[in-house]
Design a protein that fits this description.
Nucleotidyltransferase, domain 5; about 10% strand; globular; about 120 residues; two-stranded parallel ribbon; YqgF/RNase H-like domain-containing protein; mainly alpha
Length: about 120
Amino acid sequence: MLFDGRMSLCLFFSPYHFMELGLQMWTCISELSLVGFVVGYPFDRQRLAPDATQVKLFIDDLSETGKLDGLKFTFWDERFTSKNVELLIKPLSLHPVLAKTVVDKFAAVQILQAYLDYVNKKERR
């Protein structure tokens, strides 16, 4: 559950497919009455990663359209999610293209689950 007991949904995207994600987001907002998004963000205290800049610019651009008005969204640390999934699927010896897709999808699920765990734990306190 996400935001006031409503349904949670996991979308994943490549940093190079922002337009596709924007269309997915707008479709989901209207069809599923979404109230918020959890955005995987590559935090790095030492430097600003290029992917982090792309994610931030994408959200800023979407915000300027007005289509995110009234929606809640939060950035969530994604630094170790891909590496965790890579280690899990390594014994499967998947084709590199399939492995990348699997890693991206499961990393997105891990990001959302980490956020939901945090919110649930915070609510219990």
